[in-house]
Amino acid sequence: MNRGRRKSRVGRVISDKMEKTVVVAIEWRQRHRLYQKSVRRYTKMMAHDEQGVSTLGDLVRLVETRPLSRTKRWRVTEVLETHEVPEVKPVEVDAVLVEEIRRASKEVPAAEAAVETPAAEA
After folding, report:
1. Which of 26, 36, 43, 59 could serve as 80's disulfide partner, Cβ 3.0–4.6 Å?
2. d(CA 96, CA 102)
3. Is position 93 within any domain?
4. For the chain (length 122 residues), average pLDDT per consecutive 10?
């Protein structure tokens, strides 16, 4: 099979949790047969990423290749657009809030004991 004749697709990386493998969503459009509205459809493909250069949200180009595993038939050739993942900082918890949570957790067992006592007498 000649490399020039291989199929090529462009899609967005939706998962990069595996080693050397990414899941890419390929978007395509189809006309609704009754309403004639253009409907977006997605095909999920697993692709081989040897260098591990693509990350979540990146726009990548895939090229068809020989079967690499049961589900992988595509290879990432280039990253067309990178996606910046925002850094999430932990929220600083106020000492007053911590104290309120402690008081609430101490009050809950006392309230449960009070509720169970009348039920046992009846």
Report:
1. 59
2. 10
3. no
4. 80 96 97 97 97 95 97 97 75 71 78 60 54
Residue 100 lies in a domain: no
The domain that contains 77 carries what CATH number?
A: 2.40.50.140
Domain range enclosing 12? 3-81
Within a domain: 95:
no
Number of structural domains in the chain: 1
Cα–Cα distance, 102 to 114 (Å, whole number): 19
Q: What is the 3-state secondary structure (H, E, C) of the chain?
A: CCHHHCCEEEEEEEEEEECCEEEEEEEEEEECCCCCCEEEEEEEEEEECCCCCCCCCCEEEEEECCCCCCCEEEEEEEEEECCCCCCCCCCCCCHHHHHHHHHHHHHHHHHHHHHHHHHHHC
